[in-house]
Design brief:
The complex is a heterotrimer. Chain A contains 25 helices and 35 strands. Chain A is an alpha/beta fold. Chain B is built from nine helices and five strands; from the N terminus they run H-H-H-H-E-H-E-E-E-E-H-H-H-H. The longest helix of chain B has 19 residues. The chains are: A alpha/beta, B alpha+beta, C alpha/beta.
């Protein structure tokens, strides 16, 4: 920053130089002076509504630069500094102090004195302000405004309107940040209040037969969907007006211990603060990280934390005896597991995609060195060999790549088979905040894409590779536009391309051809670390080939010789289901997430299963030995986010639970191999020793199969996970689940007409397995002949019910008329 | 929404016409809410949904606007709104007595509608007719120089279906729905009815005429300073 | 010396069918437009600027100067918005003007648009005056048909669309930025300034917002020249303006006079105070301005003299109250108005008017407490200069000024636990409600 960009002013006599355009309230912070405020928020546009921050300001005027005071106190939150400005706050100006005291008195007249039972009590700016500069007793003796309380704005969000100071932080957040204006100021004057459209609350007559009123996108609870980020309003509410059902009346803030850590529900790995009391997490809040999530997080990151403390949490190992899982001691369980693995002639490892780098590395070593198998795959979702090749070629060992800052500053970002909001969380917020030009190769303009002002490049699921190949600067229309703007831009690919043959190959080619950088945006927090740890067949850590084991000293933990290149997820499952695999070590994954859950269940039934699990879920029912492991909140570790940035976090809760690595180390010991898998630093030493690979594995080179004709009465399936869905991580948080968008089957107007379904009518989507029956939504942006279903939302478990994936052909019918025939 | 296809089609047609008046569709929201009142007799929840859908807004954004403005009714309005000005001047000149008398006659209080759906009684704020105080607005038409008896007579006549003409307005008072349609910007053909101005509006002009007072003739302009001099007596 | 009354904007009111194009043309209408279109836009603008015309909507800012604040054309749209939201209590001049002579406003809007390079102008009319809306809609349709609006106006190559927009009942929309938000289909709440409308107004484009009377003055100034306009009124308050007398005068109504006429003259013209009574207090510029009493009857009613006397000329909404009126009652009702009309955006106005309303109602009802006097002194100070917009600042004016002149009347209410006045004595009719 050059001197010209700085403005020098004095605040309470302290000289401070700040960048041009800085607001007085921020400049004062630089000088260490806190001006009280309610409506001000550094990430929202100023409104100067609450008037709490009034200060005395004088500016030089005229050629002489005579200091001229403003005739009345000014809102520090809305006035930009100017050279030579003199600001006197409540600390030095009786005018400012009197103005602020006057505003405080007025804010309090209609505010209840219920601090002892208010969640905000103890961390409340208004409480502080009242104690600091309010009157000992109120002069206000008239009746206060009262409201029925609380009102549920969503199943999760509650409002106590009498506590609200009408600062509009919440409504400004909703409109400005995620673009989900689900709440707004209602009524006016002293009756003004924050709210949704609620006829009862607004005193609006509802004729018989009308309602419910959900607008365009309904939520599960039947009201308008409030978006995936609504929980942020609780955190920024400067009083106790907005609370969450999850936290309300659960704790006093001064009883909580707050630890900064990393969120584990998506691959952004946002900075969060976990607040706990006596070993129980009570709430999660967004951390302040301008390089990553600003001060915002998804509702999933905020509210989905009870899964680690549910009734199904495993505290002791289980061993199956006479067909029944029984509690066992650690030595017994380890011995049983060791016996299974010793007896097995063939073994495989399916560790899942939610691991820390340290635990992923432990599995990588355990498989190769201890079990001697390369049948290992972290992907607990549809996966392809082409994708594995892509990951090895593009991602593994690539270190930090495109950053959030670079992504948002790109001339254009093209998403292919990836949804920035549903699958990227705060990626969406950052792109929207920056106004980045966004394109999406998809079958429809998702709600997220629309709110990004993005442009759809339509593609029938399965045809993404062809569309990518057609992105050329000379191409007509949107393909040409996108191709031109992508020079220096970014192409983001996501997990659903794993079922699109040739798509990763085409993405690599397009990036090279257009001069764009390529980003893999996985959906799970542990996937990037799993790639770096080498949890794919043939892959060693840091993008090295497993063939280098025995040659590179840095890979000595892997032993002296590498096993032959192993099988990927699909082949492992098929082998086990066919009885050609004896034992599988399974980490944290759900059967329902696997490409074909029926087949997977069969595989786990046939093979012996040693499961390392936080909770007793479906995998345990197939397991022969279950070894309890610690969730992220109970161990230190490192996630790697989609940027490739290491996101180390401390152990938040005191716990006796062991990390996967510690358990694997103990199991290895039982199997006669002594290897330090339970130590956090091991993997970091190995990765540091390995450095960047000298040469990358070959690029994927998959062909594009000829498109198959879709028979009449059928459609191609487009599917991805809604950000809030039936994910196991959201268990025990019913308020979050009820806030999710209502699952619908989306089709184009022409497709709807062909099926004979109208908006809101029931559409039956089926394969030869089962039928998914959902309300139809007709979206004019949708490609004809395609139906979109959320992958794992209530009533729409695509893999379990249909055995289908993105790009599969499914049957469409009016519900009740020949569905599934 | 539960609008029948014909109603919906008419609404959509009218809405398109309203939207076309503005560079940005959202500007049509206030007229569209008036339009909803012309169809439903108030801003109905269905009407809110219609506006949201038409302008690509959330329901909360529409109700935020609908509940801000006092002309938008949240309950089915009477066929006639009797609005008695109770802002200081009119209230003191007799508006309070007029309101009380009407309330007694109709048997309803402020913002209430008679059981037969005929009248909604409303205390209104200053309606820019202070020189005609006390003022009553019937469906937003001017009834000047009211007394309790004259106001009751207006209500009585309306109730009996007799033609009632405002002091300054069309030849007769039209229904709440009809007037709401005008407020949505659809002219009803009554603009040429009624007087040019009320007597109070013309007093200055008539006095000037009587005294031969007028603005100076153009070209015969006195120097700028002279006027200032002239008025310091 | 200019005559006592000078009907100009009011000069055609009452003519047969005065609102029609035919009548307007017969009375010399649209001649100013022809003259303007034959000149450079800059000359039209400078003529108005040099005339010294000051805004007639309350603040009195020089109209031509406001126009000249627009940034140079950048090829994008710029807008004229006529503020026809006349809602300040006591103000009743724009509504009869638009009802009787809508073409006068339309002609002014066309000339102004031409001067500032606007091709889509708006008249934002309060929604509670449906017949005025009819007249405006009808007049715009007529003007368009006759070629005064639309494409290539009178063959000049100048295009203008004019949209008349009806509000829906909110006093705050008289504040220009609240009006713009309302016109954009939002809640009418004032915007943060800067940016000022001249830079980023309607749809974030350069915008001029002017009062009806200001714009209706433009054809006259254009036709007769700025020198002529300056020959009327005072040096700093040039021209003529409409004075609206209401309340306890014999002949309430609209009196158009050169700026600088006094209240004593006006009351005389209006036949004096109600028979058998004396003047008690009057509001010079609407209920948001400080009240005056007998003491200020000779203050010239121009912008600066009224300020010097401790109030504001505002909209020249002269509300007259005689000795039958309880000042506590009057002020209490005004506070009811402000509490009802506070938009709710800022704390001082929203909470302050709410509080004062409760206290004033209690005092008037005979339930005042001695400590209420301190509240009445202090809370206005918590509002004035702290509120977001000028409407908040103006809300306690009547209260503050009434305490200056009539403090004893408040104390009397509190001490004796009752209002000493009979409301019926103030009624303009003899019949008395039950």
């Amino acid at each position: 920053m050059t001197a010209q960009d700085l403005v020098t002013l004095t605040v309470d006599g302290i000289e401070v130089a700040v960048p041009k355009g800085t607001l007085i309230i921020r400049a004062a912070e630089e000088a260490g002076i806190l001006i009280p405020r309610f409506c001000d928020h550094p990430l929202l546009k100023p409104v100067a509504a609450c008037r709490q921050c009034l200060v005395d300001v004088a500016s030089p005027f005229g050629p002489e630069g005579t200091l001229r005071p403003f005739p009345k106190p000014q809102p520090a939150c809305a006035i930009a500094v100017s050279e030579g400005m003199v600001v006197n706050t409540q600390l030095t100006s009786p005018v400012a102090a009197a103005a602020q005291a006057a505003v405080t008195e007025l804010i309090l007249i209609n505010h209840p004195l219920d601090c002892p039972i208010c969640d905000k009590g103890g961390e409340c700016p208004l409480q502080n302000q009242a104690l600091h500069s309010g009157r000992p007793t109120s002069r206000y003796t008239e009746p206060k405004n009262t409201f029925a309380k609380p009102l549920a704005l969503t199943p999760q969000l509650l409002i106590d309107r009498e506590r609200c100071v009408l600062c509009q932080r919440c409504t400004r957040f909703a409109a400005q940040i995620p673009g989900d204006p689900f709440i707004a100021l209602q009524k006016r004057g002293a009756s003004q209040q924050i709210g949704r459209f609620d006829p009862d609350v607004l005193g609006m007559a509802v004729p018989d037969g009308e309602g419910p009123f959900a607008g365009d996108v309904p939520a599960v609870d039947g009201r308008p969907f409030a978006g995936y980020f609504a929980g942020n309003v609780v955190q920024i509410c400067p009083v106790g007006a907005l609370t969450s059902a999850a936290y309300r009346f659960r704790a006093r803030p001064f009883d909580l211990v707050s630890t900064e850590t990393v969120a584990g529900h998506d691959a952004s790995c946002s900075t969060i603060r976990v607040d706990y009391r006596r070993g129980t997490v009570l709430r999660v809040q967004a951390g302040d990280d301008p390089s990553l999530n600003d001060e915002w997080i998804t509702d999933k990151d905020r509210f989905a934390f009870r899964w680690t403390a549910g009734p199904d949490r495993l505290r002791t190992p289980l061993v199956r005896r006479d067909g029944v899982l029984e509690e066992a001691s650690w030595p017994e369980a380890l011995a049983a597991a060791a016996q299974i693995l010793t007896e097995a002639k063939s073994t495989a490892v399916l560790p899942g995609g939610r691991l820390t780098l340290e635990d992923a590395f432990a599995y990588a070593v355990f498989a190769r060195r201890v079990l001697g198998t390369d049948d290992v795959d972290f992907r607990a979702r549809p996966a392809s060999e082409e994708e594995a090749d892509f990951l090895a070629h593009v991602v593994a060992g690539s270190g930090e790549g495109v950053t959030f800052a670079e992504l948002t500053a790109a001339p254009a970002v093209l998403f292919v088979g990836s949804e920035p909001e549903d699958e990227g969380g705060v990626v969406y917020l950052r792109l929207r905040g920056a106004g980045t030009k966004v394109y999406s190769v998809a079958a429809l303009a998702s709600r997220g894409l629309k709110r990004l002002g993005g442009t759809l490049i339509p593609a029938v699921p399965g045809a993404e590779a062809d569309v990518l190949a057609g992105l050329k600067p000379k191409a007509k229309g949107v393909a040409g536009e996108a191709a031109k703007e992508l020079s220096g831009g970014v192409i983001v690919v996501g997990e659903r391309l794993a079922t699109v043959p040739g798509a990763y190959t085409a993405a690599v080619a397009a990036a090279e051809r257009l001069g764009a950088r390529l980003v893999w945006l996985p959906r799970r927090a542990g996937e990037r670390a799993a790639v770096e740890a080498g949890l794919l067949p043939g892959l060693a850590p840091a993008g090295r080939s497993l063939a280098e084991v025995g040659q590179d000293e840095a890979l000595s933990l892997f032993g002296t010789t590498a096993p032959a290149k192993g099988r990927d997820l699909g082949r492992i499952i098929r082998a086990a289901a066919a009885g050609r695999l004896d034992a599988i070590v399974v980490g944290g994954l759900e059967v329902a997430d696997l490409p074909d859950p029926t087949l997977a269940a069969h595989a786990f039934e046939r093979a012996k299963v040693v499961a390392l699990q936080v909770r007793r879920d479906e995998v345990a029912e197939y397991a022969d030995v279950v070894l309890p492991v610690a969730p992220a909140v109970e161990k230190p570790g490192t996630f790697i986010n989609w940027e490739g940035r290491l996101r180390p976090f401390p152990q938040v809760l005191t716990s006796t639970a062991l990390s996967d690595g510690r358990v694997l180390q103990a199991l290895a010991q039982k199997l006669g191999v002594s290897v330090p898998l339970g130590q956090v630093e091991t993997v970091h030493q190995v990765l540091a020793a390995l450095g960047r690979p000298a040469q990358r594995p070959a690029a994927p080179a998959a062909g594009v199969p000829a498109a198959t004709a879709v028979p009449a009465g059928s459609a191609v399936l487009a599917t991805w996970h809604n950000l809030v869905d039936d994910a196991a991580a959201a268990d025990y948080e019913p308020h979050l689940a009820a806030s999710a968008p209502l699952p619908v089957a989306t089709v184009s107007p022409a497709t709807a007409k062909a099926v004979g379904v109208t908006e809101g009518g029931r559409l039956a989507v089926s394969t030869d397995r089962e039928v998914i029956d959902l309300p139809a939504r007709i979206d004019p942006t949708m490609v004809d002949g395609v139906v979109h279903l959320p992958t794992k939302s209530p009533g729409s478990h695509v893999r379990a019910a249909l055995g289908a994936a993105h790009g599969s052909v499914v049957k469409l019918a009016l519900a009740g008329k020949g569905a599934g025939q | 929404m539960t609008y029948g296809p014909e109603t919906l089609e008419a609404l959509q047609r009218d809405a398109a016409e309203v939207i076309a008046r503005y560079p940005t569709p959202r500007s049509a929201l206030l007229p569209l809410l008036h339009l909803v009142q012309s169809v439903d007799g108030y801003v109905s929840p269905d009407g809110i949904e219609f506006c949201a859908q038409t302008l690509d807004l959330t329901l909360a954004e529409v109700s935020a606007v609908a509940t801000f403005y006092s002309q938008f009714k949240r309950k089915p309005n009477g066929q006639y709104t009797l609005g008695v000005c109770i802002t200081s001047l009119c209230a003191i000149m007799g508006g309070d007595a007029i309101f009380d008398k009407l309330s007694e006659y109709l048997g309803v209080g402020n913002d209430e509608t008679t059981a037969d759906g005929m009248f909604t009684l409303e205390k209104i704020e200053c309606n820019a007719a202070c020189d005609f105080a006390p003022v009553m607005m019937v469906n937003w038409e001017f009834f000047d120089y009211q007394t309790p008896a004259s106001a009751v007579q207006v209500a009585e006549d309306l109730r009996l279906g007799r033609p009632v003409a405002p002091t300054r307005g069309p030849d007769r008072v039209h229904s709440f729905r009809e007037v709401s349609r005008v407020l949505a910007g659809f002219l009803d053909g009554h603009e040429d009815e009624g007087p040019s101005a009320g007597d109070a509006s013309l007093r200055g002009r008539k006095l000037a005429e009587a005294n031969g007072w007028a603005v100076p003739a153009p070209g015969a302009a006195a120097p700028a300073g002279a006027a200032a001099e002239g008025e310091s007596k | 010396m200019t005559d006592t009354l000078t009907p100009l904007l009011t000069s055609r009111w009452g003519n047969p069918d005065s609102w029609t194009l035919q009548a307007y043309l017969k009375a010399g209408g649209y001649e100013a437009l022809k003259k303007a279109l034959s000149q450079d836009a800059a000359d039209v603008l400078n003529n108005v600027k040099d005339s010294g015309l000051r805004g007639r909507g309350g603040a009195g800012f020089p109209t031509g100067t406001k126009w000249s604040f627009l940034p140079p054309p950048d090829g994008g749209p710029r807008y004229l918005v006529v503020n026809a939201d006349e809602s300040e209590p006591g103000t009743c001049k724009d509504i009869p003007l638009m009802m009787a002579d809508p073409h006068q406003l339309i002609e002014g809007a066309i000339i102004t648009s031409y001067a500032i390079g606007c091709h889509h102008a708006f008249i934002y009319l309060r929604g509670e005056v449906v017949h005025v809306y009819r007249r405006l809609l009808g007049a715009v349709a007529e003007a368009k048909k006759a070629g005064y609006l639309g494409k290539d106006i009178l063959g000049s190559g100048f295009d203008l669309e004019l949209t008349v927009h009806a509000g829906a009942g909110a006093y705050i929309c008289g504040e220009e930025t609240a009006l713009l938000d309302s016109l954009e289909g939002r809640r009418g709440q004032p915007r943060l300034k800067p940016p000022f409308p001249a830079v980023a107004g309607l749809y974030a484009r350069p915008t001029v917002v002017n009062n009806v009377e200001s714009i209706a003055s433009v054809p006259w100034i254009t036709l007769n020249g700025q020198e002529w306009w300056k020959s009327m009124g005072t040096e700093k308050s040039t021209g003529v303006a409409i004075y609206s007398l209401s309340g306890h005068v014999q002949q309430p109504g609209q009196y158009e006079a050169p700026l600088g006429i006094t209240m004593r003259q006006l009351i005389d013209l209006a036949g004096g105070i109600r028979a058998g009574h004396e003047l008690k207090f009057w509001m010079p510029g609407g209920s948001s301005t400080a009240m005056f009493t007998q003491e200020q009857l000779d203050v010239p009613l121009d912008y600066d003299s009224v300020v010097a006397a401790g109030s504001m000329l505002g909209t020249r909404a002269l509300q007259v109250f005689d000795d039958s009126v309880c000042v506590v009652r009057a002020v209490s009702r005004w506070m009811d108005f402000y509490a009802h009309e506070s938009c709710g955006k800022c704390t001082p106005c929203r909470e302050g008017t709410f509080w004062l309303r409760s206290v004033l109602r209690r005092i008037e009802a005979g339930r005042g407490k001695p400590e209420d006097m301190q509240i009445l002194e202090d809370i206005p100070k918590s509002i004035v200069g702290k509120a977001f917009c000028p409407l908040g600042d103006g809300a306690p004016s009547s209260l503050v000024s009434s305490l200056k002149y009539f403090r004893a009347e408040y104390e009397d209410h509190i001490e004796n636990g009752r209002c000493p006045f009979d409301p019926k004595a103030a009624y303009l009719f003899k019949e008395v409600a039950a």
